[in-house]
Amino acid sequence: MIFFVAIVVTIYTLVNYIIFIRGLQAFPAGSPLRPWFIAGFWLIAAAFVAARILERNSPGHLTECLTWIGSFWLAFMLFFTMIVILIDVVRLLNYFLHFLPAFLYTDYLRTKQILFIVSVVIAAVMVLAGYINARNPRVKELSLKIDKPGHGMKELTISMASDIHLGTIIRKAKAKELVRLLNAPRPDLILLAGDVVDEDLAPVIKDNIGEALCELKARIGVYAITGNHEYIGGAGPAVEYLEKHCIRMLRDTAVLVNGQFYLVGRDDRDKPRFTGKPRKELSEILNKADHAYPIILMDHQPFNLEKSADNGVDLQLSGHTHNGQIWPFSYITRAIYELSWGYKKIRNTHVYVSCGFGTWGPPVRLGSRPEVLIIHLTFNDE
């Protein structure tokens, strides 16, 4: 973990340094704005790191302010980096093709200053659009049939969300909106497929977000699993907090619900990295299950989907990917995961990977809109 953090901080610093050097070109030596740019840039760049250090030990208004500034800065970093790359590609092409007008080079400083202003405006518009998008989740409905008897169930309505990331950014008001959306169809079952909390629990406790979670209402119950972010912040306290606030946590276990279907919840696949202890294999969890009953699985990270089909799972619900959250990261998640977002059927197994309700890092989404999933399951009772 120390090695991983060192790499992340090094990359973060280098990217900021590149952006800083390019931006500094718009402020020549002797400019009265140059010292303000230097100080302002590095104070903003340091905000995210400072907030992560302070969040666990000193939650308060200063920490919240730094978290918001630092989180937005992550999005600005991305767009500034893309703009720098685009400018350099254009310059490289111009070196060979000579298509840029000559006046751009007659007053090079003015050109750099105009580029600086245009870059800031473009990045700001992109961040604002992404923030608005991230604040407006959609409800997606999916109707599926499981080719097994429902043992008395004609239909099962499930409300599902993943990657909520409750904390400093996703606060109580947003949690109440989630509760409203999940409760709206009057579901039989509510499922939260991991990353319910965003690493550190202190902001969740401070804002008393658990009070909102207790308003979740489903005929059968409210169930959740751990995601990688529960482990980053400490899975034990996170699980204890959620269970105290009306959510039943499933940890590498299968339960027969109402004598009608099995609900399976797996610990996150990052559990060994944080605890040194392996999670159970799916085959081990299901070794005593009667496969004549429908089997619904929650597994936060959508890896090895074939194993679910091999073990007779009828419906798998996952999250984790955010579908990249901000374009162009969606191309990366599509390369890593067999299913980055949406629905797929693997033999007799229905799989849905949610792009998530909340955000991690920047409170910004571009190319993926937050969602709540409503699933209408029917069964084969012939």
What can you tell me about this protein's structure?
With 382 residues, the chain is of the alpha/beta class. 46% of the residues lie in helices and 16% in strands. The chain folds into two domains: 132 residues, no CATH class; 242 residues, Metallo-dependent phosphatases (Purple Acid Phosphatase, chain A, domain 2, 4-Layer Sandwich). It contains 14 helices and twelve strands. The strands form two sheets. Strands 1-12-2-3-4-5 form a six-stranded mixed sheet, with helices on one face. Strands 6-7-8-9-11-10 form a six-stranded mixed sheet. It is elongated, with a radius of gyration of 24 Å. The protein starts with a helix and ends with a strand. 40% of the residues are buried.
**Spans of at least 5 consecutive residues with low confidence:** none
What is CATH's topology name of the largest domain?
A: Purple Acid Phosphatase, chain A, domain 2
**What is the subunit arrangement here?**
single chain
Helix content range: 40-55%
Major sheet: arrangement of strands: 1-12-2-3-4-5
Task: Report the major sheet.
Answer: 6 strands, mixed
Write down how many β-strands occur, each being a DSSP E stretch of 2 or more residues.
Answer: 12
Number of domains: 2
Short précis:
This protein is an alpha/beta fold. The chain has 14 helices and twelve strands.
Provide key terms for this protein.
Purple Acid Phosphatase, chain A, domain 2, 382 residues, 6-stranded mixed β-sheet, 46% helix, 2 domains, alpha/beta
Helix-strand layout with pairing:
Layout: H1 2-24, H2 34-57, H3 61-97, H4 103-106, H5 108-134, E1 138-146, E2 155-161, H6 172-183, E3 189-192, H7 202-206, H8 210-213, E4 221-224, H9 228-233, H10 235-244, E5 248-249, E6 253-257, E7 261-265, H11 271-275, H12 282-285, E8 295-298, H13 305-310, E9 315-318, H14 329-336, E10 342-346, E11 349-353, E12 371-379
Parallel strand pairs: 1-12, 2-3, 3-4, 4-5, 7-8, 8-9, 9-11
Antiparallel strand pairs: 2-12, 6-7, 10-11
Helix pairs in contact: 1-2, 1-3, 2-3, 3-5
